[in-house]
Request: fold
Amino acid sequence: MMQDFSQLDANGRLRHLITLEGLDPALIRELIERARGYLCRPGELPPRGDDLRGWTVANLFAEPSTRTRASFELAALRLGADAVNLDVMLSSRVKGESIIDTIYTLQAMQVDVFVIRDAQPGIIEFVARHVAGHVSVISGGEAHISHPTQGLLDALTIQLHTGGFRDLVVTIVGDIRHSRVARSAHRALAALGVGELRLVAPEDMMPEPDEFAGARRFRSFDEGIELADVVMMLRIQRERIAGAAPTDVDHYHALYGLTAARLARARAQAIVMHPGPMNRGVEISSEVADGPQSVIREQVSNGVAMRMAILAQIAESRRRRAP
Amino acid sequence: MMQDFSQLDANGRLRHLITLEGLDPALIRELIERARGYLCRPGELPPRGDDLRGWTVANLFAEPSTRTRASFELAALRLGADAVNLDVMLSSRVKGESIIDTIYTLQAMQVDVFVIRDAQPGIIEFVARHVAGHVSVISGGEAHISHPTQGLLDALTIQLHTGGFRDLVVTIVGDIRHSRVARSAHRALAALGVGELRLVAPEDMMPEPDEFAGARRFRSFDEGIELADVVMMLRIQRERIAGAAPTDVDHYHALYGLTAARLARARAQAIVMHPGPMNRGVEISSEVADGPQSVIREQVSNGVAMRMAILAQIAESRRRRAP
Amino acid sequence: MMQDFSQLDANGRLRHLITLEGLDPALIRELIERARGYLCRPGELPPRGDDLRGWTVANLFAEPSTRTRASFELAALRLGADAVNLDVMLSSRVKGESIIDTIYTLQAMQVDVFVIRDAQPGIIEFVARHVAGHVSVISGGEAHISHPTQGLLDALTIQLHTGGFRDLVVTIVGDIRHSRVARSAHRALAALGVGELRLVAPEDMMPEPDEFAGARRFRSFDEGIELADVVMMLRIQRERIAGAAPTDVDHYHALYGLTAARLARARAQAIVMHPGPMNRGVEISSEVADGPQSVIREQVSNGVAMRMAILAQIAESRRRRAP
Reply:
């Protein structure tokens, strides 16, 4: 990230959300607090608002039907925005200029917020640097680097179940090296002063030594889960597991799959998280995924609430900036 | 269908709509009555409602742009719901568990109604069995088995033109063996006490003997159409007609195509129906499709009205169940 | 266009918009005036209206994510309509009849306005000839023939910057032969009484002699741009430039690309237009595209405003026709 870019406006309020890096913990706490206001009990109609009445939110996702796209679309609609979906992979354009032309064109249609998922590092910030002063850019997931709304919804989920971060032991397990989910979780938890962050992964899935500052690293899942309060499993891309033959999958599951037996080594009230979609029988057993300690579905609900909170916060910032 | 599954809630009201099998005729009549309230004259703006205000309807159709998907989307929007479209073929997932995970994920975003079209028998009921108590599932078409909203809109169409079912002769013609439209029409008409149901098809398109209880079977179209009040033509998949060479098509049309000459054998006021899309010149001649006895376009309008009625009924049921 | 088709209703008001050919200049001026009311300053929320409350607008575009589709969708939503998007290439159907069946089906769902982009000449008018009396058809771009909303937004853009058309010199540059944008610009400008229209193109991109009545033709860009008030560049399909090898592109750019040096030959206040998407370095240099004389992004904003004006006008016409 270059020195002169800030996600915040001149008032220090959220304008874009590209990364959790460097975000003020007070701002993160404010988002968590605001998101709690959008939660509802199952079977209740979700809270709605008028915060984005008259706004246009454009979702630019290369894959049209991801869950994250639907989550942002619903968050925008429930706050009164118009939402348009465009199947646009910005980074697939041949020349850098045309990315910006695409964005300028949409911006000229009075799009207020761009939600972008892209596989090329830096594209989302690149867009944020170029949009007009009133326009906001939110990352919907950037390569292996960053998935800030996921990091925030994970923090919200942990807080709802534990009350605080200071004394917590959080264990992240799996292909951490290639995971934007893990990176954003690390940033959120570090900002919130988590007690201890542990990384559990085989050698080739462990991140470089200069990443995940402050985290303890474990090759053994049994050791890394010992007395953990939160166990966050990552989705495994099957092709990452050597040849991904059935035996390789079984081997991975034996060493790094979360089973009931292994979960018993964590604290009794420990929660189990997963960003989805799950590979049952690979990184997590069905018994655990559907068990009483799993908060996996709740994460999805919290995701909509957190995205509503972010959108509402951005709308509030803009209104404050307006003359 | 397993014994312990019911589409109805504890009050005997509609919660899901997966099949017309076993549905109380009074309930079908109620839906027909309610749908009539959503009809409008051409050129009028269609009736709208607030019955689904705050609700989220998710359309899960493998093919993004089917007419049925659009019909459900418009029905939901006209009742005030948010509608999201997802190109999801549930049955294409590798493992059964992940179907449920997809549904649980969407449900966790506070989706209230799933409309699902799927080519794998049983998937839609499977989903309905697993969703939360406040969530409803509506079939948008299930393999060759069931298309309940089509059956109901066909019943509505027949009632609007004939006034009643008791003395009617209804003739269904074409590839009945592979037709969910025919199966759902049979169930609706049987429930409503239709006078006589006739099936007209060549040998290889005739259903098994234990299906379509009570219907009379004809190899000859000329005999089966004799004094019919309703002639319901089915869409022919061209690949079903032997080699589907032009000569095969002509041969099929000569034997099982509805022409003006053949229609003259039915009652003078007989109506002609087709679920669309039509193969003009194959199962139906243009002269008949566009003629004065055709109610084919009206079926489409009735489809939106019927889907609104079903959604409104489901919303009403849920409000009755709520404390 | 056949003699008996009119885009206007019996009151002489706009019902369809298929072409600008033969449109009363007073009507064009009225649309321009109305569109001005939908403009907003950057950073302001765009004006909204209730003109289409209860209406359904269906976008039938073969490519799902074009900018024009998004522009129409936003225009419809901002006037209160329901908007559905269908990926339908009407002309790709095997038989002519089925195009009409598709349209009749959608019309039967109470679609009020069809916006259609299609690559086959005549299809859009064909649809307009067949829809019911209360239904309107708007062209979103027809082969190389016509793009009327683009022609109108271009006229709006020119008027906003120059105040009038009588004394203007407008130069259109590029593959005019294959350009619907150029054809609709010609018709709008001719109707509004433009002072002088110039066409600049290499031999193989120049239209037939019987087209573009009244325009002056130039092989030399330097001559054609001399003292022009408006320079309208067209998008070049790279495959149109001989082999489109880099040398061909450079050659094209040298002869027909708009550079700052070339723009200096136009009037000092001349504006530069482009319908997008641009091929920077081919038909236009980045220096010019992003320079102070470029109104390219403004054209996009004007496009939404003009489409709102057209929709609102059509709604008004229909209300006048209604008893």
